[in-house]
Design a protein that fits this description.
The complex is a heterodimer of chains A (166) and B (592). With 166 residues, chain A is an alpha/beta fold. Chain A has a single domain, classed as Rossmann fold. Chain A has 6 helices and 6 strands. A 6-stranded mixed sheet of chain A has the order 2-3-1-4-5-6, sandwiched between helices. By secondary structure, chain B is an alpha+beta fold. In chain B, a hairpin with a 2-residue loop joins strand 10 and strand 11. The chains are: A alpha/beta (166), B alpha+beta (592). At the A-B interface, strand 1, strand 2, strand 3 and helix 6 of A face helix 7 of B.
């Protein structure tokens, strides 16, 4: 089973860093800045079923919030990445979520607040996180540096996408 | 319970009381807290005793690992260095166990890698073999040497017109790979990721130029590779082609895409990530894996066979010719070595021929005629012969005959290098032979005991003094006269031989005569008859052209001989008169 998943988030929130250590990378990061996307692969096993997540790592831009809609088309799910040390990236994520939902409808997604290894420097406070949880979002606190929260993030999203497909 | 601790006592009694009170408290405490105390002691022992503590931890350790592993990656991160270190130590300590453990996994992987490598090598070898024999192949080999690239790669670059290396069937909306095929020996990157990027590029180009949904990327080129994209309504084919593909190849892609769309219409519409149904598209994708090289492989193979055949035939023909030539040469050498008067000191084959050196008696057989007789080409043989005298009996004999030139009446034989002359010869020849013979190489002595030396003047004298007598009125040669005539005839034969050897001529006159009795006419006839009777007895045919015989009845010689005889009987005779004539104008010395 294959699923297309988009990685979304503001500029330099660590989307690429988050996935590079855990996926099959074939292309250099230059593609981000040339065509605005880099496709990578993450193989998982959910309840004994092999799932291949094709991760479309989209180039983030805080200022204009522009994403190519064509890249989102056909996605079975998406991941919103927030930089815990920059509060504005949470707002970007919220905007992106609305945009994507407007385009693709209510498809499974998960949010990861990155840089949990420097929690003391976080601008995103617990209240904001609680608010997200209250919305019913799948929220993960993780770190691209230590790898915390990454596997559960993919597993949870894969599981939700598979259940929705059934 | 007692109330003694609450009574008043003296100092000693008080001290005793205090002691008693402590015991009471202790007793009370043991009564109240005994179970907890034993539990505390047990717990302390479990904490203080490492053996018990380890046993307790071992019970929960697997569950603890599982629990923590589910939560995050901390445990894996923390254990990783120790696992790596432990593994390295295990490899160092017991490599055999590690080999046994990973062999079931590594075996198939290694086999697969070897098969791929061999396939690649075979392809390279095929290309190399096909091209290495031609002049163009030599040129490419120089190019490979100059550029440092493998020869097979250079050949491929020059001969390849196009080759479809990979074909991707990609879901249009999701960019997910539905199916993929690749040609043999093509290095395939992660086809899923490539598929996603192809879809991304497709979208990027469409977005960037504001194209409509129907206007899609048709193809793009990178170096010597072209990527052709054949669009369907829900999926598209992407072919990675090396070289310059012909436009007719497009039809293959179109046909394949059309058939897939018809056959997989439902699967494409309901696609949610399960690619299993698209395994059925494999034959269509595989039909697009076409390649075309500069020359048709069949013809090239045929050409290779023909070339190989010609080469093989050429080699066989050359081998046969060389073998025959060598056999002829060997046979010739054997003949030459057994030939009298020839000594071979060097016989070797050179570039394109042979070389001979040795000794040769001038009277020996000429090796060049032997060469031709042996079927060898004299122009290919260089021979250097040094002259020498061979002592082979046959050559000594030849040399003796060549130098002495004996008359036919002489027989020369060799008796242990002694030359023995027999028969008859002129006195001059016998004299010269006696002088020359000892100087002939191979002759150590000369003997002519059995040689009869004949002197021409003596013979002339003998002949000219011969008188054949007849009875009165008879022209019959009587037996006693015939016997006399035999001696004359022998002398005449020797004279004829001596004259012919010396180039001179003999004129023999047979002169008949009669006495005066009876008529003169009859006497003349009788004289002629007697001359002819003697001539018949002599038999003129036994002489050579050097001897001329005539008959006559009147000559000064006859008159002179008759005149000296007064008796009639002395006139009934036939006389023989031989004269020797020198050859006209002979400047050469007459050899005996």
């Amino acid at each position: 089973m294959q699923k297309k998943v988009c990685m979304l988030g503001g500029f330099a929130v660590g989307k690429t860093s988050l996935v590079r250590r855990f996926v099959t990378s074939l292309f250099s990061e230059q593609y981000h800045t040339t065509i605005g996307v880099s496709v990578e692969k993450k193989a998982l096993s959910v309840d004994g079923e092999d799932v291949t997540l094709m991760l479309w790592d989209l180039y983030g831009d805080d200022e204009f919030q522009r994403i190519r809609e064509s890249y989102l088309r056909g996605s079975s799910g998406y991941i919103l990445v927030v930089d815990g040390t920059r509060k504005e990236t949470l707002a970007t994520a919220l905007t992106l979520q609305q945009t994507v939902e407007g385009l693709l409808g209510p498809i499974p997604f998960a949010v990861i607040v990155n840089k949990s290894d420097v929690r003391a420097e976080w601008e995103v406070d617990d209240a904001a996180l609680d608010e997200l949880r209250q919305r019913g979002w799948s929220l993960f606190l993780g770190s691209a540096k230590t790898g915390d929260g990454v596997e559960p993030l993919f597993l949870t999203l894969a599981d939700r996408m598979l259940r929705q497909a059934v | 319970m007692s109330n003694e601790p609450f009574k008043t006592h003296s100092f000693s009694a008080t001290a005793q009381g205090l002691e008693s009170s402590k015991e009471d408290w202790s007793e009370l405490r043991s009564l109240l807290l005994a179970p907890e105390q034993s539990q505390l002691d047990e717990l302390r022992e479990r904490l203080d005793n490492p053996a018990i503590y380890a046993r307790d931890v071992s019970r929960v350790l697997p569950d603890a690992f599982t629990l923590r592993g589910k939560g995050d990656q901390h445990l894996a991160t923390a254990l990783a260095p120790f696992v790596e270190e432990g593994f390295a130590a295990a490899v160092r300590k017991s490599p055999r166990a590690i080999v046994d453990a990973i062999a079931p996994i590594m075996g198939p992987a290694i086999r697969q890698a070897i098969v791929r490598t061999l396939q690649s090598m075979m392809q390279s070898l095929n290309y190399s073999l096909e091209q290495s024999l031609s002049a163009r192949g030599l040129h490419w080999r120089i190019e490979a040497w100059r550029t440092g690239r493998p020869f097979a790669e250079v050949v491929l670059l020059h001969t390849l017109r196009y080759r479809v290396e990979q074909v991707f069937l990609i879901h249009r909306e999701t960019g997910l790979l539905l199916h993929h095929v690749a040609a043999d020996s093509v290095a395939v990157q992660d086809q899923h990721v490539v598929s996603g990027m192809l879809a991304a590029i497709q979208s990027y180009v469409q977005d960037s130029f504001g194209a409509s949904k129907d206007q899609t990327l048709d193809h793009f080129q990178v170096g010597e590779w072209t990527v052709w994209i054949e669009e369907g309504s829900q999926a598209f084919l992407a072919g990675v082609i090396q070289g310059a593909p012909p436009t007719t190849l497009r039809q293959h892609f179109r046909d394949a895409m059309d058939r897939i769309q018809v056959q997989q219409a439902d699967a494409l519409s309901d696609f949610h990530g399960d690619t299993a149904p698209f395994t059925a598209t494999h034959p269509y994708l595989e039909s697009c894996l076409l390649a075309h090289y500069e020359a048709p492989p069949q013809r090239r193979a045929m050409g290779k066979w023909i070339l190989g055949g010609v080469l093989l035939f050429g080699c066989a023909w050359w081998g046969w010719i060389a073998y025959q030539s060598h056999a002829r040469w060997s046979h010739f050498l054997t003949q030459l070595k057994t030939e009298p008067g020839v000594v071979v000191t060097l016989a070797e084959s050179t570039l394109g021929g042979y070389r001979l050196e040795g000794l040769r008696d001038p009277l020996a057989k000429d090796p060049s005629t032997m060469l031709i007789a042996a079927g060898l080409d004299p122009s290919k043989i260089t021979a250097m012969w040094s002259p020498y005298y061979a002592l082979h009996p046959s050559l000594i004999t030849t040399r003796v005959h060549s130098m002495l030139q004996p008359p036919k009446t002489v027989t020369l034989t060799l008796e242990s290098n002694i030359l023995v002359a027999s028969g008859s010869a002129s006195v001059e020849w016998a004299r010269d032979a006696r002088h020359l013979a000892p100087f002939i190489p191979g002759i150590s002595g000369y003997r002519d005991d059995s040689l009869m030396a004949i002197s021409i003047p003596d013979l002339l004298l003998l002949v000219n003094h011969s008188v054949i007598r007849f009875n009165s009125g008879s022209s019959i040669v009587e037996p006693p006269e015939l016997a006399k005539l035999q001696t004359v005839m022998a002398a005449l034969r020797n004279l004829d031989l001596a004259a012919s050897q010396s180039g001179r001529t003999v004129s023999l006159e047979v002169l008949g005569s009669a006495d005066e009795t009876g008529p003169e006419t009859m006497n003349l006839q009788l004289s002629e008859s007697r001359a002819h009777a003697v001539l018949a007895a002599i038999g003129g045919k036994q002489f050579s052209a050097a001897t001329t015989i005539t008959t006559g009845i009147d000559s000064p010689f006859l008159k002179q001989q008759r005149g000296s005889a007064g008796r009639s009987a002395d006139k009934r005779i036939v006389l023989l008169h031989a004269t020797l004539t020198e050859p006209p104008n002979t400047g050469e010395a007459v050899r005996p």
